[in-house]
Amino acid sequence: HDALKRRCFYHWVDYPSAERELQILKVKAPDAAEGLSREVVGFVHRLRKMDLFKLPGVAETIDWAHALTQLDVMSLDPETVNDTLGTLLKYQDDIARIKGSEAERLLTEVKAEIAAS
What we know:
This protein is mainly α and 117 residues long. The chain is 66% helix and 0% strand.
C-alpha cells in the first residue's frame, strides 16, 4: 500500500560481480561442477543486461544451479537451457523472448568467454 511505502526506507543492493556470484554459488550450491557454475553465472549475467520484465536475482542463479545438478548436468547446452529457463525467468513473455536462438546465442558467448580466459 502506498501509505506504508511512504513510511519505509529503501536500500537497493545491486547484483554482485560475476566473480562474487561465483563465490556465492560455490557456497550455496557446492555440488555443482566448477565449469557448470561458471556457465550459469555467465549466462545469468548476460540475461541481466537484457531488457526483461524481471531480471534473475542471485536466488534464481542458486536455484538454477541446484536444478541442473539434480538433472546431472555437467555443462550447459541449448536444449537444457530452454528446458530450465522457468527456473531463472518468472514471466512467460521473458521465457518466450529468450528461448531458442537467443538462448543459444547467449550460451555461445558464455562458452567463448570461458574458453578465452
